[in-house]
């Protein structure tokens, strides 16, 4: 299976606000749907009686999402690539009353907002919330279409970063971003090099239905939550050398990986629910899904998480078995892995997967490493 970032999604229904005027969302930007009669959007259209206050960046868990992964913009991207920026801007203005259809990050963002709603119920004055920032290389002219689309889909996204073609990385640091999701692998690598958790998003032709009330996030272990140390040992010494290395070092913590702090951020919010007696029905659930073997190499991973003061709600040690079928059962809103064949395997089963281009595996992208954690 060959995945391109934000490839076409088939068969997903588009959520609609029953109070809104009739709308037909463009599946990839080239549809003819327009808003009827209602051209302006207000608080009532969003279904809000009291507009939530935005948290300060230092208090929030900030998720920066590219417009190309939040929405489907394949047609617009082709216009830009084939006809240039001026024709692209003209096209966007001409179609600004046509909402984009949901992209691969859409269900994830909706789940973040569902968690925020629960947090506001329990902690009305707290700013420890998810804060979503829409990041786009677009010119400000495109902002009208993006705002129309956000209102159409009843999203609460007030913070935009429209860079007009410039790199967004400096802005991500200013926002104190906890996670950056993009279709641009180069910018994802740039963000990772600056210490920002980041991943390139992908989507399969089919999409598994996900929970509307519980955010589910699944992580690979090595080179995602942990460093790529163990993968390097495998490459140099083979499977037997890897197992021996893990046994010899089971009491030595693994170094941190690029998404360790994002897991910590999720854990911090989970504990707010636990403090109110909601451990069993917490609206955030996390998963470790690793190809490591439990008995041969799993103990070091678990000890490392425990020493960090972190936990995942579930841990699956697959000993080299395919991850796709397990992820199909979990139905996460997003799954992070550093190897594309695992991303592809997840996508084949309908899971929204994101690639973390980090570690030595990026130099050996096609070699399957059984029983190692990769």
Structural description of this entry:
With 374 residues, this protein is an alpha/beta fold. It contains 12 helices and 10 strands. The chain has a 10-stranded mixed sheet. Helix 10 links the parallel strand 7 and strand 8. Helix 2 packs antiparallel against helix 3 and helix 11 packs across helix 12. The two termini are 19 Å apart. The relative contact order is 0.14.
Summarize the structure.
The protein has 374 residues and is α/β, with parallel strands linked by helices. The protein has helices spanning 67-70, 74-83, 85-94, 106-122, 143-152, 169-174, 185-193, 229-248, 260-274, 294-307, 324-330, 340-348; strands spanning 61-66, 130-136, 159-162, 179-182, 198-202, 215-219, 284-290, 314-317, 334-337, 353-355.
Kindly list the characteristics that best describe this protein.
single chain; 374 residues; alpha/beta; ten-stranded mixed β-sheet; 10 strands; 35% helix; 13% strand; disordered C terminus
């Amino acid at each position: 299976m060959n995945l391109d970032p934000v490839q076409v999604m088939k068969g997903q229904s588009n959520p609609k606000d029953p109070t809104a005027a009739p709308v037909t969302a463009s599946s990839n930007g080239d549809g003819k749907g327009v808003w009827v009669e209602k051209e302006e959007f207000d608080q009532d259209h969003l279904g809000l009686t009291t507009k939530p206050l935005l948290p300060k960046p230092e208090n929030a868990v900030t998720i920066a999402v590219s417009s190309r992964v939040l929405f489907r913009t394949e047609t617009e991207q082709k216009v830009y690539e084939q006809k240039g920026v001026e024709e692209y801007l003209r096209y966007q203005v001409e179609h600004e009353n046509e909402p984009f259809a949901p992209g691969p990050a859409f269900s994830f963002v909706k789940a973040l907002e569902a968690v925020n709603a629960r947090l506001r119920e329990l902690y009305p004055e707290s700013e420890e919330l998810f804060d979503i920032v829409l990041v786009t290389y677009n010119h400000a002219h495109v902002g009208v279409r993006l705002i129309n689309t956000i209102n159409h889909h009843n999203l609460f996204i007030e913070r935009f970063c429209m860079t007009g073609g410039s790199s967004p990385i400096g802005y991500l640091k200013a926002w104190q971003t906890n996670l950056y999701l993009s279709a641009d692998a180069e910018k994802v690598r740039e963000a990772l090099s600056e210490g920002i958790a980041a991943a390139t998003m992908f989507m399969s032709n089919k999409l598994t239905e996900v929970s509307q009330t519980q955010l589910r996030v699944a992580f690979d272990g090595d080179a995602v939550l942990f460093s790529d140390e163990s993968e390097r040992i495998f490459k140099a010494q083979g499977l037997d050398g890897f197992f021996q290395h893990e046994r010899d070092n089971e009491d030595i913590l693994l170094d941190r990986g690029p998404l360790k702090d994002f897991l910590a951020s999720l854990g911090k919010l989970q504990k707010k629910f636990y403090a109110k007696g909601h451990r069993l029905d917490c609206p955030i659930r996390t998963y470790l899904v690793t190809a490591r073997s439990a008995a041969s190499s799993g103990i070091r991973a678990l000890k490392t998480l425990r020493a960090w003061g972190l936990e995942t709600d579930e841990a699956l040690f697959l000993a080299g078995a395919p991850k796709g079928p397990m992820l199909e059962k979990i139905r996460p809103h997003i799954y992070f892995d550093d190897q594309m064949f695992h991303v592809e395997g997840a996508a084949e089963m309908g899971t929204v997967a994101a690639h973390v281009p980090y570690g030595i595996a990026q130099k050996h992208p096609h070699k399957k490493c059984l029983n190692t954690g990769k």
